[in-house]
Write a structure and sequence with these properties.
With about 200 residues, the chain is mainly alpha-helical. It has helices at about 15-30, 30-35, 45-65, 75-110, 115-125, 140-160, 165-185, 185-195. Its main location: membrane.
């Protein structure tokens, strides 16, 4: 689950510029990105990408809502640093791989001829690209990030696993709800919007 291919054919470059370029490409040209930027066994750039997104999301939460900083030790600054370290080293990698494990099981049930687990990990990592700004406490922004991330997940599954849009949607519905709806707050944001509109 943590293989780093030295010279992956068609995989991603390394480094901060490569992460920024991947972020722009997956947001603006997702089909092309998933077709050419995901390589078997090349999970490390995807993992780094997911960690960067998770850190951006968490920094946003802490910056806009300081009450979200856990009370650990040494005051808010130290607590925030420890929490960010935990997100980078434990929470983000674990969430990525647990979501990928669930997604793989669902793909087995829905898609007969599919790509491997490594490619699934990368699809989920890059689909989270919009959520780097989901920490902004504006329901419309958070809901938009969640919906965009879910759409990117479906596009990535369709392209990488060579399946139909319907099968990709069916396979990706539960992971999308868990990751983008629960972890990144899309469901709560949607409820807040509906409440503000008087629809619930």
């Amino acid at each position: 689950m943590t293989t780093w291919v030295a010279d992956p054919e068609g995989g991603r470059d390394r480094g901060p510029r490569a992460v920024a370029r991947a972020w722009l490409e997956v947001l603006l040209r997702p089909r092309q990105f998933f077709a050419h930027g995901v390589a078997p066994g090349d999970q490390a750039p995807g993992l780094v990408f997911a960690v960067v997104v998770a850190l951006g999301y968490t920094v946003g939460l802490f910056a806009f809502v300081p009450a979200r900083i856990p009370d650990l030790a040494g005051g808010p600054a130290v607590s925030a640093f420890v929490a960010l370290a935990a997100v980078a080293l434990v929470v983000a990698p674990a969430t990525l791989h647990l979501t990928a494990a669930l997604q793989t099981v669902l793909l087995i049930l829905v898609v007969e001829d599919r790509a491997g687990v490594s490619e699934t990990v990368q699809v989920i990592a890059y689909a989270a690209a919009p959520c780097v700004v989901a920490g902004v406490p504006i329901p419309a922004v958070r809901a938009g990030c969640a919906l965009y991330g879910a759409a990117l997940l479906v596009v990535g599954l369709r392209v990488v696993h060579g399946t139909s849009a319907a099968r990709a949607t069916l396979a990706g519905a539960i992971p999308a709800m868990l990751l983008f709806g629960t972890v990144f707050g899309g469901i709560d944001a949607g409820e807040a919007i509906l409440l503000a509109l008087g629809l619930i």
